[in-house]
Design a protein that fits this description.
Length: about 425
């Protein structure tokens, strides 16, 4: 009897249940392509039982894993004590959805299993993996953003939003604490390197210029050490530290600016900003799966900050457009190319400019609601969720073929 073909989705627990929230949205995109899925939350007690069921009773077209969850699963060969990777043994392509800069958890981006394919939101992220693993190549796909939580515009009560306000849904962190950590934990020369790099790159970062931060770090280390690849873990360290520092600087500027406005700031670790005297309302309850539904139903719109990317957009944006909701996000090349009509509704990290835009939006709520409708309409025209799914299906098909032991006969003069 022929087994039913499925895409195996491996999710897990994470802060604010974000992992399952993202994986459920990607699962919906696979269903749009008429693909059947088998969903497993690796953090639940029935993980092993469900995995065995999937492997024994279904034909797994490929695995779709958040951050490589389950990539190193092994079992013993029959009548042997030898351990072998499950996915390699069954020649199952293993697609890893990589949501962040590879510099943080580089091992998750490596060639385990051998059937791995990494998915990145932007070439800015993929370049780190490609550079670091020059001797151990792993294919990757640059994914197109998809519309999350796609709603029918007829079912949305837009009048309710005029009673709400703008929401900044973001965890914070103190940049000064990170600077202190560099001084405390790193050799003086390395801490000084990070200070110098930060000082050099920060102005362009705050202006949202399309600069290659990782390339600048490689050049900097090459100038200092002669060969950056020979010091690749130093490059990786500097990359991670500066990425975190720029995020902290930018998010702190946004939160500091918002303190004077009647908005909501939802997230943890804002102690360095929340002095108890703000007009803005702070809350650390940030279950995004729950809050996003409440926000899009009751609030005016979102304020967003793209995580150090220029060539793609944040998942907050994808959820907002699915709900025909307004979102104020920072300037990126992606926004300028895909939604040039909304250039006026993007910002750079300049306090005066940002505050001026927020004040205008809060004073023109009906305009904000109408712009949210327009943005959602345009997104449904310009963002095709199948553009995310189809490249993965094709890449998995190719990976499976190239790793299978039995190959078809081609020309007599072609040898596999």
């Amino acid at each position: 009897m022929k087994k039913e073909k499925v895409i195996l989705i491996l999710a897990g627990s994470g802060a604010n249940d974000a992992i399952n929230a993202v994986c459920k949205q990607k699962e919906a995109a696979f269903h749009l392509a008429a693909k059947k899925t088998y969903y497993i939350d690796a953090s639940l007690p029935d993980f092993a039982q469900k995995l065995e069921d999937a492997l024994l009773n279904y034909e797994i077209e490929f695995v779709f894993s958040y951050l490589g969850i389950g990539s190193d699963l092994c079992w013993k060969l029959p009548d042997s004590e030898q351990l072998i990777n499950v996915w390699e043994y069954h020649n199952i392509p293993f697609i890893k959805l990589q949501s962040d800069l590879p510099s943080y958890f580089i091992q998750r981006h490596g060639p385990v299993p051998k059937t791995s394919i990494n998915i990145y939101a932007s070439p800015e992220l993929a370049q780190v993996q490609t550079w670091y693993y020059q001797e151990q190549k792993t294919p990757h796909v640059i994914n197109k953003p998809i519309v999350f939580d796609r709603q029918s515009i007829e079912n949305i009560d837009f009048s309710q939003r005029s009673n709400g306000t703008l929401v900044f849904l973001k965890n914070g962190n103190n940049p000064n604490q990170l600077l202190d950590m560099w001084e405390r934990n790193l050799p003086h020369s390395m801490a000084q390197d990070l200070f110098d790099l930060a000082q050099s790159l920060l102005p362009a970062v705050l202006r949202c210029e399309p600069i290659n931060v990782f390339g600048a770090i490689v050049d900097f280390v090459t100038a200092k050490m002669g060969n950056a690849l020979a010091c690749r873990d130093m490059v990786r360290l500097y990359s991670a530290q500066l990425d975190d520092f720029f995020r902290r600087i930018k998010s702190t500027m946004v939160a500091e600016s918002l303190k004077k406005f009647p908005v909501k700031i939802i997230g943890s670790h804002w102690e360095h900003v929340n002095d108890g005297e703000s007009v803005a309302k702070f809350s650390n309850d940030i279950n995004f799966s729950v809050h996003s539904k409440e926000i899009f139903a009751n609030e005016l719109g979102l304020i967003d900050m793209t995580p150090n990317l220029d060539l793609n957009v944040h998942d907050r944006f994808c959820r907002a457009v699915g709900n025909y909701a307004f979102i104020l996000t920072n300037k990126t090349s992606w926004m300028q190319e895909v939604f040039p009509e909304f250039n006026d509704y993007t910002y750079i990290f300049d306090k005066e400019q940002f505050e001026s835009k927020v004040e205008f939006l809060l004073n023109n709520k009906e305009l904000v609601i109408e712009q949210g409708k327009l943005l959602g309409t345009l997104a449904n025209e310009r963002m095709n969720n199948l553009d995310f799914v189809n490249p993965l299906i094709e890449a998995a098909e190719k990976m499976k073929f190239m790793h299978q032991q039995q190959k078809p006969h081609m020309q007599d003069f072609y040898v596999w």
